[in-house]
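Field: COMPLEX_INPUT
Field: COMPONENT_COUNT = two
Field: RESIDUE_TOTAL = 1028
Field: MODE = joint
Values follow.
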Amino acid sequence: MSNIRHALSVKREDDFAAWYQSVISEAEMAEESGVRGCMVIRPWGYGIWERIQRLLDDRIKVTGHDNAYFPIFIPLANFEREAEHVEGFAKEMAVVTHHRLVADGKGGLKPDPEAKLEEPLIVRPTSETIIGDAMARWVRSWRDLPLKLNQWANVVRWEMRTRMFLRTSEFLWQEGHTAHADEAEAKEHTLRMLEVYRACAEEDLAMPVVAGEKPENERFPGAVETWSIEAMMQDGKALQAGTSHYLGTNFSKAANIKYQDREGGEQLCHTTSWGVSTRMIGGVIMTHGDDDGLRVPPRIAPHQVVILPMLRDKPEDAALIDYCEELRASLIREQALGEPIRVLLDTKPGKAAAKRWDWVRKGAPVIIEVGGRDMENGVVSLLRRDDLWNLDNGKPAFQTPSREEAASGMAAMLEDIQNTLFTQARERRDANIRRDITTLDGLRAFFSADAKFPGWAEVEWSKPTGEALEKVVEQLKEMKLTVRNVPMDDAGATGTCIFTGEPAAEKIYVAKAY
Amino acid sequence: MSNIRHALSVKREDDFAAWYQSVISEAEMAEESGVRGCMVIRPWGYGIWERIQRLLDDRIKVTGHDNAYFPIFIPLANFEREAEHVEGFAKEMAVVTHHRLVADGKGGLKPDPEAKLEEPLIVRPTSETIIGDAMARWVRSWRDLPLKLNQWANVVRWEMRTRMFLRTSEFLWQEGHTAHADEAEAKEHTLRMLEVYRACAEEDLAMPVVAGEKPENERFPGAVETWSIEAMMQDGKALQAGTSHYLGTNFSKAANIKYQDREGGEQLCHTTSWGVSTRMIGGVIMTHGDDDGLRVPPRIAPHQVVILPMLRDKPEDAALIDYCEELRASLIREQALGEPIRVLLDTKPGKAAAKRWDWVRKGAPVIIEVGGRDMENGVVSLLRRDDLWNLDNGKPAFQTPSREEAASGMAAMLEDIQNTLFTQARERRDANIRRDITTLDGLRAFFSADAKFPGWAEVEWSKPTGEALEKVVEQLKEMKLTVRNVPMDDAGATGTCIFTGEPAAEKIYVAKAY
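Field: COMPLEX_OUTPUT
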């Protein structure tokens, strides 16, 4: 195996953070824009986002939500109102103060002092308050409930330290907001949307997650309950990949979202909100990437199969392209994973080997090379991105099915790749969760500085609140750890709390996190 | 016909502008947001935009473009550079100057003076310059060309007078940007994308358009050629519904977009850009709306068929819902206009008649009501939105096919509605174009103040330039007219220019415009 020459120059085990940046750059997913904290999402990265968007949007629509669009600017007054109702909301936001540029007299431009806004506008960090205003207008009676809205949009939070996809000042996301007549229905809906996220992460992104409730100290400001899905990255850290909040009547009080019940009485609505963002793409990279670049799960791959004719800039090329075109035509008639197979016939000028490695780094699930000899023999040279190397000779593990077999077997192959990526990730995660730690010292040892990629610990705690919880949070912080969540499928605690020594109330996941 | 009681209180012929606002509000398409110049796009309006987006996106992808995403903020310096290269670019933009809020000491919030940006950021009015920067990074050699990018995003232009969908400070759009090795290819591509817009407008939106070139004075600042599609609204005014620009090397000079040619020499790229926006929804309203509200062409209708069981809040409702559910199940198995039929079974509480009129105002193409008696007889009560009234008795023109006929005939019915809307609009447009005006007085009379909804005039002109053109523009301006475009299918001019008296060079469309 030592003779394998991997496609990236940085390996995961040598420098995980540098490897992550290298995948993003080598797979041409995104790049710095020159604007602080904002990235350019390049076509391959954006194509993956479009796939995630479409699959998740279908799931959100099936659960009865309509998409709508709300203004990018939010009046300052909305945040003043929120500051009254919600403690600890972040104030790092982009503030618009002028509406015109004017020549500065030195050959440049400046904000026109004559065009200063009377009230500054905020570029939305979330649309919570402005959607709340709309809900207050739209909800009149119990007949209007539940009101289920979703928005796909860009939002801006001024971040000091940014990392592409994981934390950027501008990011793309969806935010769902619903209003319900009562607590039970709103709570049920909070969990229903959490389940939508779990299914999307596991079935579409092939990214195993733990769904559970966040502890009190990790709740979204203003939420009564915050739930999350947490995924384990290959460096053992946790990535919070999506959250769903039950907001009680806190936001409906602030925004005045009321309805007339069947008896004619006035009631506050119970609201929920939930969101996932382009951060999920960071999760895909750190779940499925390897030392050759990205591996994109077929369901979210913009192109599932890339066909590369080995062109030589000669008249024979035409026949080769025809041969490949016929393969493409057969493939797109097939369905895989419930949709027509997405195929790119890449005839861009360039050396065949260079193009192959470009697609390896980008992580196209299946790469099919076709040369003159393949054509003569009626076959193709096929590479599975999830099974790239022949470990015996350190060379790419080409298969050479007939062209017809390649077409007829493709649906099953793509389904197998999707399953393989999920299974690999789940097995790796499960192998990296320690469940036998019962003391704080044990926890400290597991996460000690020389433990490489330690993973997660599932421990029991007494579910402390208030000051007792603050103390636990402080202890964990010293180890650079956080409580990720209380898993829903928790079998129940039986021992003692590793923090307080009291009888344990539940199991929690503890980890370093992004 | 006088006994028809239309669903809207304002009629087109009485007050077209008020009627337009009334459709938007009664069909629950959009509303004021409370943020100056920004609207909330409500689910029905946004659903129509999602349909347009998906259909147009498919067309844009078929022509070889990839979607990407660029930052919402653009450094001031980019506009300083553009101001040097491009005369007359607009300076009404939202300017971000701070990145944090802080308590103002009076219970409110204010921009934190400590968090003033060193260089202001501009909320993109278009992404021309920042995409230009990316192209300059991505294009190295002729092998990288053509580079074909597209972006779906929100943009902001500070507008003083706004009108929903037609002119708002924030709007949603797509902007395509391409770089080519030479002029011929870039010009060809400019027209190819114009044709994509024409096809989308006519085939998807059922909105007939005239494709043609804009005169010199109407060119996008910095463009060598600007082409447009123009649609006639029911008040006779023109709506520019999309533009496609050949930019020569003007933008590649400014952004330094160069490539190495096959001989190793350095060349400037020839670039194009083109865009359509949520403005198109305004076009759909003013093309297809009537005195009962909107009529949505089936291709872009979020729901093509709405089934309304006449529920009575009694146990019998269950059987009625089952009967309707079976109809829905049959319908969604059918394909119409190349896609599975989109059906809503609306079981929301409320009076059946009120719900019917809600869907009439929203313009769902087919509304199917089902009452207990319909169920007993195995039939349904079906309304075509494009053929709403029985003119003999002034009542809704219900058809009563069997449930099976309703399902099996739906694809053909939807296709017929799509065609009918297009044909009606085209016939109305053609009837409202005057082609026999040969004098300025004739033009003045046609567009005189007491001419109601006069339509367009196709006249011949000598294609003046420079000062001569300025004079023509001034003459037209006095009549509140503009040159819309020089139609591509122009048969050639044969007479004299109505402005200069010189021999005519080409035909132009002259109209009042939005």
